[in-house]
Amino acid sequence: MTAPEAGTSHYGNRPSLGRMLARASVRHCPRCGSGRLFESYFRLRDHCPGCDYLFAREEGFWLGAFVVNFVVAEGAVFLLMFAFIFRLAATEGTQQGSMLSWLVMGVVLAVVTPIVFYPFSKTIWAAVDIFMQGARPDVDRHGRTRRG
Ligand SMILES: [Zn+2]
């Protein structure tokens, strides 16, 4: 059990978006910073072990995590395409590199990135949701609604 930081409480003030995203980017609870949120690499616990925060707020909640994961995976492929175009322009098309290696890198990136990024997409989406929910009440694991 992690104690809330100074200036925050488990059900009161929330940390800044930057701090929540920083915590989420290392798979920690965006709200309290507690670790051990995952039972396995892919399986997120229902509640934070530190602050009891319920992650899946409603049915379809993880659609946002899917979008985060999709944007990151497509961004990685976009960067690879940009590198390919830049290289082609830099050599003015004189260097005949293997197009197959670029295609293989693109396919590997498109497949591996969303798998590796999957747990991060969940904690990042939880951070975004906490930031956006504003005055929405918090619900603990017992279904009790609490306000700051
Ligand atoms: Zn927490």
Question: What's this model, at a glance?
Answer:
This protein is mainly alpha-helical and 148 residues long. The protein has helices at residues 17-24, 63-90, 99-132, and strands spanning 138-139, 145-146.
Structure, described:
The protein has one domain (17-146). It is an all-alpha fold and 148 residues long. Mean pLDDT is 85; it is low at 6-11. Strand 1 (138-139) and strand 2 form a beta hairpin. Helix 1 crosses helix 3 (99-132) and helix 2 (63-90) packs antiparallel against helix 3 (99-132). The longest helix is centred in the C-terminal third of the chain and has 34 residues, at 99-132. The two termini are 19 Å apart. Helices cover 47% and strands 3% of the residues. A two-stranded antiparallel sheet has the order 1-2. It is built from three helices and two strands. The radius of gyration is 20 Å and the shape is elongated. The structure holds zinc ion.
